[in-house]
Write a structure and sequence with these properties.
single chain; binds S-adenosyl-L-homocysteine; binds iron/sulfur cluster; two-stranded antiparallel ribbon
Length: 357
């Protein structure tokens, strides 16, 4: 089934070839520049509107929707046509509106602290399913979406082609600046190299979480395949090719990776990157099967200060939407558990993604 966001401008022209020529432009503008749903395009005849709604159904339906942070954060669980579910988060700030999208239903990478990783892999998303998350979030706000981050469910660089197509469409059709599109990767080195060769200078974020292979292997199983040195090499090359600063993400886990000596070793590994070395510290959001806890603020600040002294710039991410399980995969997991509790005997886990609307 084709959704409105599968079609290129040319394909929309073919679909509307019986209509006056200006119609395709009108529909295209409303869909992409104005971010409207087909049903909201009141400038076209109602019969045509009904035909388009029928022929181009949305790929996502809302399974669950919840607000937090005084309405500044909204989280969606969307159900896809085949029943798989994904998460999308809309975050409003003073100076920007950001949408966090999923690139896969589930994730095969199995990072031990991540709710999505704990639940396993269901399937890749196609480009239209990725793009529609942004447009649907746009429908919920009068402010224009300005940033998109691939930090929802899934590993974007394990699904590179659809992700690159989605990036192209978000840039060329939805109108976002390439530098406001951020792809976060756990360190899929071949994917990082593909992204470096991709036309758009999108922002790259690399989830590191540890300064040594021994520790990183316990958090990120993919480290066995692509150890820290290889990941940092690929990040260095990306920064050099694109002339863009790469960000390293670091989920802070009390007593595991938050010692000041670890900050020194981390700084030693990433110093001298083109555009400067930058670390984004994320206090761990505790997840079901992982025993780790976030450090207190003082400990995080000490770690951050040590990085700064070593010449690395640092931001500490505010935990948005903790009260609504906004960390990657958490809300979906909660929904699944609720469903399973209500339906004893029903299969649980990956492959049985079912939600109660
Ligand atoms: N797969 C990609 C992108 C999705 S995860 C990646 O791993 O980079 C986006 C970010 O959320 C990653 O930095 C990831 O490590 C982090 N994350 C996942 N679970 C978390 C948790 N429970 N607490 C804090 N950060 C978490
Ligand atoms: Fe996948 Fe990223 Fe979660 Fe790791 S942290 S399991 S790569 S979504």
């Amino acid at each position: 089934m084709t959704s409105p966001y599968d079609l290129t401008r040319e394909e929309l022209g073919v679909l509307l070839e019986d209509e006056p020529r200006y119609r395709a432009d009108q529909v295209w503008r409303a869909l992409w520049s104005e971010g409207k749903a087909l049903s909201e395009i009141t400038t076209i005849p109602s019969a045509l509107r009904a035909r388009l709604v029928d022929e181009l159904p949305k790929a996502l339906s809302v399974a669950h929707e919840v607000d937090s942070d005084g309405g500044m954060t909204r989280k969606y669980v969307f159900r896809l046509a085949d029943g798989a579910t994904i998460e999308t988060v809309l975050m409003a700030y003073e100076d920007r509106v950001s949408v966090c999208v999923s690139s896969q239903a589930g994730c095969a990478m199995g990072c031990t602290f991540c709710a999505t990783g704990q639940a396993g892999f269901e399937r890749h998303l196609d480009a239209a399913e990725i793009v529609e998350q942004v447009v649907r979030a746009q429908h919920a706000t009068t402010q224009r979406v300005s940033h998109v981050v691939f930090m929802g469910m899934g590993e974007p660089l394990a699904n590179v082609d659809p992700v690159c197509t989605a990036l192209e469409r978000l840039h060329a059709d939805f109108g976002l600046s390439a530098r406001h599109l951020t792809v976060s990767t756990v360190g899929v080195v071949p994917g990082m190299r593909r992204l470096a060769a991709f036309d758009l200078p999108v922002t790259l974020a690399v989830s590191l979480h540890a300064p040594d292979d021994e520790l990183r292997e316990t958090l990120v199983p993919l480290n066995h395949r692509y150890p820290i040195a290889a990941v940092i090499d690929a990040a260095r090359d990306y920064a050099a090719v694109k002339g863009r600063r790469v960000t390293f993400e670091y989920a802070c886990i009390e007593g595991v990776n938050d010692h000041v000596d670890q900050a020194d070793r981390l700084a030693g590994r990433i110093r001298g990157m083109r555009g400067g070395a930058h670390v984004n510290l994320i206090p761990l959001n505790p997840t079901g099967e992982f025993a780790g806890q976030p450090p207190d603020r003082e400990r995080i600040n000490r770690f951050a200060a040590r990085l700064t002294t070593a010449g690395v710039t640092v931001t500490v991410r505010r935990n948005r939407g903790v009260d609504i399980d906004a960390a990657c995969g958490q809300l979906r997991t909660r929904e699944k558990q609720n469903r399973d509790e209500k339906s004893p005997g029903r299969a649980s886990g990956a492959g049985s993604a079912t939600m109660v609307p």
